[in-house]
Amino acid sequence: MGATHIKRVLTSAVAIPLLVLVIMKGGKLGFAFLVGLASVLGLLEYYAFFFRKGFKGLVGLKALGVVLCLSAVASFYNYDIQAGMVVLVPAFFSAAFICLGGCELHGSKASLLSILVTGFVYIPFLLGHLVLIRGWDRGIVWTFFLLTVVFAGDTAAYYIGSAIGRHKLCPAISPGKTVEGACGGLIANVLIGVWFKASWLSELSWPVVIGLVIFMGIFGQIGDLFESMLKRSVDQKDSGGLLPGHGGVLDRIDGLIFATPVLYYFKTFFLTTS
Known about the structure:
Order of helices and strands: HHHHHHHHEEHHH
Distance between the termini: 43 Å
Radius of gyration: 19 Å
Structural class: mainly alpha
């Protein structure tokens, strides 16, 4: 057992019980605080990809990002999806004003604008849907369903890919990911879906549950690849070192960021049960 694997297991052994405790006992407010914290840390890691020390206005940029990030999560907590979408307007205006104020990146204001807007939508806005899911009727069940499906698929893809992976999934973006690992992750997604259907989601039909978890699993893996693409574009292996054995916060929640809105909109528009 390698040192990295030991760190990975120990980190999970500490983080998972804390996560369960917040979901079960922290209420909607405690969970929103956790999502806000994860969003802020993830956004700061994202900024670190592109903005190095010495970048003009870096401190102010980070401060503004934190304020907008927490505003988005607070909007999801206090209101609904419409309120969360309203925060996109000041986020875009802020990015535009930063560019108009003279800041640029590698000689291109358009690149800076794209990075700022993408970062806000990618992390706090998409991840903020978690707060909405926690606020549903039986929100605890749906939250555990989402997290378990995503993390089980991610873990299975990692270990199965490491053990028997032979065919590269997308070598130009992430050389370590394999087709075998991806398939193993989807199988884990389905197994978790079967467990939740039998135990807590009996009102849903089997085709709906299986289709939903496969859809979530696919988007979770796309989210993983998306973050890998960002890291590869700046020649960086991990988004950070906050979680030993896992890397940074973004490395741990990249799949969750993409899978969360999939569950939210699927249930909102295609399921009538709550």
